[in-house]
Amino acid sequence: MKLFTALAFLISSLSLVFLSFFNYKIPSLLVWFTLALVGAVFVFYISHKNLISYALKRFIGVVALLFVISSLVFVMLRALPGGPFDEDRALPPEVEKNIRDKYSLDAPLYQQYWMYIKKLVQGDMGASFKYLEQDVSDILGDTMPVSVQLGLYALILSYLLGIPLGLLSAVKHNTLWDRLAMITAISGIALPSFLVAPLAILFFGFYLGWFEVALWEGPAYYVLPVLVLGTRPASVIARLTRSSVLEVLSSDYVRTAKAKGLHPFVILYKHVLKNSFLPVLTFSGPLIAGLLTGSFIIEQIFAIPGMGKHLILSVTNRDYPLVLGATLVYCLILVLANLIVDLLYSYFDPRIRLS
Amino acid sequence: MIQKTLWYESWERLKENKTALICGAFILLNLFVAGFAEWLAPYPFDEQNTDLLFAPPSFEHWLGTDDSGRDVFSRLIYGTRISLVLGILSSFLSLILGVLYGSLSGWLGGRTDAVMMRILDILYSIPILILIILVKLIFESIVDVKDPELRAFIGLLVALSIAGWMNLGRVVRGQVLQLKTTLYVESARALGAGHFEILSKHIFPNMMGPIIVLLTMQMPINILSESFISFLGLGLQPPYSSWGILANEGWRTLSLYPHLMIAPGVALFLACLAFNLLGDGLRDALDPSSHQ
Asked: Do B272 and A190 touch (CB under 8 A)?
């Protein structure tokens, strides 16, 4: 119970912070933040006194991390040569001066930094330099749902494929099945998406004509990109599962369970699966963040309007606010995913305490 | 009785693993192709033949020609050179960084260790492609080299090394933390050995196995990263050639000339597969107790 209350609290308060990035105009970030914190601390104090310090620590850690990341990326961005308004065709000097004034690009760097942080704390990620008249939060808010959807399907696919595959090859260790499964998995890791994607498009899209090969408008459009995006994580998960299941299978308690005459399925289900899930869990944090924030290459190849594009193009466009916004969103998702992973750790292995 | 060293025993185990041997041979072949590209390639990588645009595969041009009439097979051979050199060199640089950072962190321990690991956590939280592109662009601009392609090459090399370094650092730290508590390190310390002596004489030799495996596993990752960056058009520019650049060029005409994209993809796939399988074989050979 404790775990789930903690989970609910942390996720809800972090998603409040998260949401406020996308409609910052009404409630400012700080208000949400304080409200969530005060409310949660109160609820916690009544229910689980020992978890308060853990939750607080995590919360402060997250805020500190976001601050450090945004500062670091800010500095790195400004170290780049070139600016956001270096077009092929030079702007008239007056126009350029006006634009630079509007975004105070000529102010000293520390002032620009201070202004950015001040706005960020209020939940305002600023306006894009490239897509003029659009706020970063709007751009990300428009494109992120697509990426999250694609990533979520790919994530589910990779667990559904990876875990059974790893399990199969561990149970049938050193047989033909094991070899086949592992060759599939290692090929999946080595396959670059820009080889799988064209092959899938040519075969399933053009030759068989089963699925759509571009855009993102319905289940027929989802199949190919999800398959291509899920290949690699599924393979990694299969390999992780295999090695950890093999380890668990050779443990004493499994031998005892076998000696008791338990049915192999019961052993697998009750003793092996849960205990061998930890490595997959560790891998899941970064995986979730990577998948949900979109893959530029897949989005490019399948013409999907996701946010992976902004993650990359914003850097080449020197669209400073958009880079920072996309990075922060990635960070938040990563932090959230890692948090869930940490909490799930103590579910899968009760010896691990939250601290 | 002849005493067999650990390395010799590992080599004997590796010799029995046919898959790993074949993969090793394939990698050597790749390296050979990369090293002698000038002799092996039938045409220079940038020789254009405007009479032969998008020629289909033929006896003169094994993989046909591209949009400027350049021989794709020759470009693939030259591409092997840039892809492999960038991937392998950056893995070694990653390794040096990772070993220095990880062993320092693990050896010093305590608060220093905690701070150093926090720094790694922070770097981990930057999307990897953004990190690579940022570092590449920054280094490209600060390196004092005239030739723009060489600048891009150095920028990419540094960026790939920095992107791959964190994982290695973390693993090395774990190894050092573990080896630090062994009896032989304790006795060395009791005998008055200095920090440097213990690290170089007692800890590093015992880490070599995992490090070699990690290094082998890092190479396909860096080769893939390079090709992704080049595929996005952010790496070296044509007429230079790497597998990613070729894939990018092929991508534009995929529905008409799919072989232009599939050929570099297959080369990349085979190389990464070989590195991964060799890495697996090395792990089995160096650490027979592992189940990986």
From this structure: yes
Between chains, do A316 and B141 touch, taking CB under 8 Å as contact? no
pLDDT per residue as tens digits for the range B45-63: 777 777 777 777 777 777 7
Residue of A nearest to B258 (CA): A198
Kindly list the residues from chain A whose CB atom is less than 8 angstroms away from the CB atom of residue B134.
73, 76-77, 80, 315
CB contact under 8 A, A327 and B232: no
H/E element holding B271?
helix B259-286
Contacts with B231 from chain A: Cβ below 8 Å: 194, 297
**Which pLDDT value is given to residue B5?**
75
User: Are A146 and A304 a contacting pair, CB within 8 Å?
Assistant: yes
Of A196, A189, A172, A190, nearest in space to A283 by CA: A189
pLDDT band at B291; cut points 50, 70, 90: very low
Indicate if the pLDDT at residue A355 is higher than 70.
no
Residues 69-88 of A with CB under 8 A from B: 69, 72-73, 76-77, 79-81
pLDDT at A27 (0 to 100): 46
Q: In this predicted structure, what is the pLDDT of residue A205?
A: 82
Interface of A with B in 169-198 (CB under 8 A): 186-187, 189-192, 194-195, 198
Cβ within 8 Å of residue B140, ≥6 positions away: B151, B152, B154, B155
Report CB contact under 8 Å: A79, B138: yes
Of A69, A77, A186, the CB nearest to B273: A186
Q: What is the residue-wise DSSP string for B126-167? A: S-HHHHHHHHHHHHHHHS--S-HHHHHHHHHHHHHHHHHHHH
The fourth-level CATH superfamily of domain A137-348 is MetI-like (1.10.3720.10)
* A312: enclosing H helix or E strand: helix A308-316
ipTM of the complex: 0.85
> At B89, is the pLDDT very low, low, confident or very high (cuts 50, 70, 90)?
very high
Per-residue model confidence as pLDDT tens digits over A36-61: 666 666 666 655 656 667 777 777 88
Q: How far apart are CA B224 and CA B231, in angstroms?
A: 10
Domain ranges in chain A? 2-121, 137-348
- pTM value is 0.85
**Are B254 and A331 inside 8 Å of each other by CB?**
no
Q: Using one digit for the tens of pLDDT, what is the confidence trace for A183-197?
A: 899 899 888 888 888
pLDDT score recorded for residue B159: 92
Residue B93 to chain A, least CA–CA distance (Å): 21
Helix (H, G, I), strand (E, B), or coil: what is residue A254? helix
CA B165 to chain centre: 11
Closest Cα partner for B242 from B252, B262, B227? B227
